[in-house]
Please model this.
Amino acid sequence: MPFFLTPEQKQSTFWLALWLALALLLYTLGPILSPFLASAILAYMLGGAVDRLSRARTGRSHMPRVVAVSIVLTAFILAVLALVLIVVPVLRAEIPLLQAKIPAFFTKLDAMFSPWLAQYGVHVKLDSEGLRELLTRQVAASGDDVWATVLAKVRVGGSALLGWIATLTLVPVVLFYLLLDWHALLARIEGAIPRRYVAKVTGMARESDALLAQYLRGQLLVMIVLAVYYSAALAVLGLDVALPVGVLTGVLGFVPYLGFGLGMLLALVAALLQFAGWSAVIWVAVIYTVGQLLESFILTPRLVGERIGLHPLAVIFALMAFGELFGFAGVLLALPASALLMVGFRHVRSHYLRSSFYNA
Model:
C-alpha cells in the first residue's frame, strides 16, 4: 500500500527540515558566532539588573531603557577593567624580580638534579649557561626547519590575536543591542513557536530560567568563598600579594581550572621570589590543592548542585561527562546545561507516568 502524508504531516516535515537546515547552518558558522554567543550569555546575566533599573522611577517617569543599559554595561566594563588592574600590577612587580632570580633558580636546579641524572649516564648542565648551550646546539642542528616552524607559529598566533581583538571589540556592541531589545527578541522567539506547543515551551522556559538564576547565585557564592579562602590562606603564609592573587583566583573560579591554574602560577612565582627555601612553594601547592578539592567536592555540589536540584554525585558526573564529550567548553557549560536537561527530564518523566504504557 503506498505511503501518503497528510497535509498536516507535510507541513510538519517541511518546517522540521527547515529548522534542521538552520541548525546545520549555525553549526557551520560556529567559529564566527562566538562573540554573539558570549554576548547572549552576558545579556541573560545582566538583563535582570537592566530591568530593575528601567523600572525605577526618576522623578515622575521611569528611567529610559537605553540609559539603564548604558549604566549596567558601563559598570560591567569597569568591573572587568578593575579585575585586569588587579592582575597587571602583580605581574609588573613580579616579572622583573623573576628575571633577576632565574639564573640562581637554574643553579639550584642544576645542583639538585645533575648528580642524580649523572648516575644514569645523562650528563647535562641545568644552569642558565648549560641550557643556553643546549638550545643553541638544537637550533644549529635543526637549521631552517626551526625558523619555518617559528614563522608558522607567529602567523597562527597573529591570526588568533587579531581574532581575540575583533571579538573583544564586537562583544560590547552586540551586548548593548541585545540588552536594549531583549524583551522584543524574546517575544519574537515566542511568536515563532507553533501555537499548539507555546504553553508547554514557555512553561519549560520559565522553569529553566528559575534554575539558571539559582545556578548563578550559587556560583557567585562559590566565587566569594574561594576568594576569601585563598586570600586568607596566602596571607597566613605571609605572601605579600595574598589579597590580589586570592581575589583573582576566586573571581575566575567560574571558569573551571582557569582561576585555579592562573592563581596557583602567580602564587608559586611570588613564593619563589619572596622566600629563600622551598617550604613556601610546597605550602602554596598544598593550599591550592586543598582549595581545588574543596571547590570540586564540597562547594560546587552543595552551593550550586543543591540550588538547581542536582545531587552532589550528579554534579561531579556532569562535569566529567560534559568535559569528556565537549572538552573545556563542556566543563564550562556542564551545570547550566544539566539544569536545562533536568527540566526536560521532569516533563518526560511526568508524561511517562501518565502514559498508558506505564499504567496499563
